[in-house]
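Recap from last week: sequence in, structure out.
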Amino acid sequence: MQGGDNITGAHTQPHPRAKDPRAAMQAHIREIRARLTQGTTLKPEFEYELLAMFVRNELSARVTLPLLAVIFSLSIMFWAPVIQASAWLAMIISVKFFMIAACRKFLATPRADIHVDTWRKTFFWLEFASGIIWGGMAVIGFGTGDAASHVFMLAALIVLLAIRMTFASAVMTILYVGTIPMTLAVVFRLLMQGHPFYVAMAVMAIGLHVYFVFLAKGLNSTALAMLEFRAEKDALIAEIEEEKSISDEARRRAEAANVAKSRFLATMSHELRTPLNAILGFSEVMKCELLGPMQNENYKEYAGNIHDSGRHLLQLINEILDLSRIEAGRYELHEEPLRLTDVVEDCLRLLHLRAESKGLQVVLEFAKGLDQIWADERAIRQICLNLMSNALKFTPRGGRITLSVSVTPEGGQMLTVKDTGPGIPKEEIPRVMQAFGQGSLAHQTAEGGTGLGLPIVQNLVALHGGTFDLRSELRKGTEAVVILPKSRVLRAMPPLQPLGQERHRQPAASPLWRPSPRPRPVEGPAKGLPQSTAAR
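Predicted structure tokens:
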């Protein structure tokens, strides 16, 4: 019984990866607290992902902005002093160098050691310094340029805004501090000219900045939505993996428990059957008075009762043993050619006395010309006996039982056992198909049983590759249908002709029409032959 305790304990222990609602609630509270502390509505993990996206974009554009700064400085030298343009270019390259170094350090740092707020502030001030220096381009050579220089400043602003919108939209605060100083510097230079044309250009610069910010917000929202979808996907994958792990563990435990149960039942059945056979033998000797007459008739009657009870108990043990062998996968089929109708008739001969004692009418409906099947005779016999025994038990006196064997449309063979018993409610059919399961109406109208007959039938039919179906209607009867596949049916071969009869075969019939041979003209006797021969 120690194995049974282990099985029970295996079912009651929770899975180590099972979800804990309290732990999930605590994690949710910690996440909300982190958002409030950082002053943002984003998840901390999203903050890191967005910052990492900004860093990767900066590294991918590490050559673009310095090259653009070189082009701008060379262009500025046409109307501004070379020293101012060169100094401005040196400051741009220096700030870009520090930005690239910080980005590489960020990616080289392990995720667990990164404080997102600190790194965001670092990139914030580096980008602010870069924006101030880029804005300084507008004041280089102030008051010395012509109209072309002012148009160039507006065009340069548009190019820079487009580039920064593409590479810095992941973190909007960094985008703001990097682009607002540039726009303000260009607007200041244009407004200082005092001409309506330049005022219009300044307004245009402000409008362009607002438009690019609007586009950058759209890119930021798209990136955030992408991160949310990816997080949901990862959560679903993790949940599926967790559920799969739990289901695999539960299935493994169920299979282990099922195997342990089958072994336990098989062992106990074997241990019970050995002394039970001895009891049956001794009780039969006493009942039949093989060793001499018994002086007291009551003892003889008691011996008969012991023998009958022992046979009933042995039958129950055999059913349990068969079911445990089937579930353990140790039931082997000994297949041979047989006729399904012969097996049904043999089973009916064994049970006809019970049918007559209850006044039941048994009708046989066999199709003509049925072929043999390739099956285990003992298993087919047990299927028929179980179904017919159930019909006898559940059919009231004066009822009708119909046994039919026919051919299915697919070419297989079908056994049907139909009775006029009380029937089974539809919601109870799955229960009666389980081991030790019985319907509610069966307890009131039928004889006692273990509830193993139908599960054994279902498993034996499945071993033959067939299907078993139980159809029932309350207070009208039950119909059990066993279908064996076409592959189990043995087709009759045409008889072979006995050896040696090929010499006595009838000659083939002459065709109705035969072409006439073409006549050969004879001019005279052949040269060198006698005349008589030539005439022939």
